[in-house]
Amino acid sequence: MPKLYPGLSRRAVLLALLLPAIGTALAFPPPALAAKAQIYTGLLSGTAVGGYDPVAYFTEGKPVAGSAQFTHSWQGVTWRFASAANRDAFKAAPERYAPQYGGYCAWAVSQGYTAKGDPQIWKVVGGKLYLNYSAGVQQQWSQDIPGNIAKANANWPKVLN
Prior knowledge:
By secondary structure, the protein is α+β, with helices and mostly antiparallel strands. The protein has one domain (48-160). The protein is built from 7 helices and 4 strands. The longest helix is centred in the first third of the chain and has 18 residues, at 10-27. It starts with 9 loop residues before the first helix and ends in a 6-residue tail after the last helix. The model is unreliable at 22-32 (pLDDT under 50).
């Protein structure tokens, strides 16, 4: 079989062909290598807390679905509320009502990584809302809440990179 590139080794030809692709991959990393969003919205929803009203955890003591009628944009994300009053309370003090760690699982953040937070698996501790991935994960997190919060605070927001 005749050589396509006389005088060049097979290795040199392969390198010449692959170098542009390698450069492009380094310049534009795949999404898995890019930093995660500050606020967890899930892959398809685009809303914080899975569309649940973050104020309701404090006022009603349970997760309440938000409505598309009552929304507010904060930190580039849409937040939904069950009422105009809850929306207005959030607007006045979003840091008070938004879940800690952007709605990612508090246990995962304490362990140095991120996982989705489930709006149905939650706890208010010290006036702050924390979400967990699952009931089993919440059990682990609950064994040392103050310690896990301290570890998560030390890891946040570094875990987004």
